[in-house]
Amino acid sequence: MASLRYDYSLKPATESILDGSIHQVIEISQSDFVTPFSTASTGGYVQYSQHSGTLTFKPTVRHNRPVTHSVYSPKHDLLITGASDGSLVLGSPGKRGARAHPVNGELAGIELTTDGDAAVVVSKAGVVAIVELPELEVTTFDTSGPVDAIAILDDDSVALFDRDPDSVYSVWSLTRQQRMSVVGSAEIRSQIGVPTVVCINGDQTRIVSAHGIVCQLWGADSGRPLVQWRMTSGITSLAWMDTMLLVGHNDGTLSMWTVTDRKATSMLSNKSHRSKVTAIGVGNKAVLSVESTGRICFWKYVLDPVNTPSRSPSVLPVDPYSGSVPATPSSLHQSTVPATPTTTRVERADDFGEPASEQTIVDMLDEMTTMLSTALQRMGRLEARMASLEARLNAK
């Protein structure tokens, strides 16, 4: 009896172009995406509704420098954007916000604690600022070292991907303001370099770090290095989609991977962007990807339960969103058009020099068994009909 399986599909839905650079995509709710962007002196954000398929521009208070990081707190309805000079703007979406400047210089990241009651802001110089929400009280401490990326592990722990040659990242306590442990070794550091892109999954159990074309999966609780794999082009953005990993590349490719503790397998890739993919956001029924020129692609993905055995992976056609993108302010180009349908190329594991996985072989054997069973049933029915005809002839 066939077990319930899920097949992913990913296809461009609509596209638009912004007059500015996009740096990071965040998800506000199950229905809307928000992506901050900037020109030379203005910070704002674009909101996309998955339900209506509309794209709108909503200005916020201005930054004096390009926006590089952002985070949204659903608990307190606060959108926090950070600029390249370390300044923050905090406020409800669509409204003017408050300013703060807890750290100086370029930011390594802004993340919420798991309880949503504080934003952790880290500069590339290694200064950590804890911004309590919604009071906006700030506590800072210095880790005395350059930091390139961060990941929140729990309410009290943050992983700082620093440049220590003998490790990959260090775990710091936010309340004690001290380093608790270091993760990785000089050998792994030499293999993966200095991670510049980091992504932690929804339940804070797995971290993926990337530098160049190398990805490394880590156990967030144990700090143990798990699977390590290489890609064909540089990695510029990461996002978890359920148990899948979406990867943006510097050649404009968006790829999807299944990642386990022992193996990473490419499911599909699609090169719809014209320049590097700087950010990826995952929502309830759609994916938003942004390239360095400001062009945005919206993707629709589905989880379809299939009651018969299926080859793995399977890509299903998806109709583009209905409805056109409405007229937008001057910051958006007026000539936005639906994306041209793109053929998705499925890349099997053996395309990358790896043998087919055990699950893939099991799925293929299941399908062959089903086909053989169907053929035997048809042969049985045919034999019964022939016997019936022979009996009729003998009766005459």
TrEMBL record:
InterPro entries: WD40/YVTN_repeat-like_dom_sf, WD40_repeat_dom_sf, WD40_rpt. It comes from the Eukaryota. This is WD40 repeat-like protein. It comes from Carpediemonas membranifera.
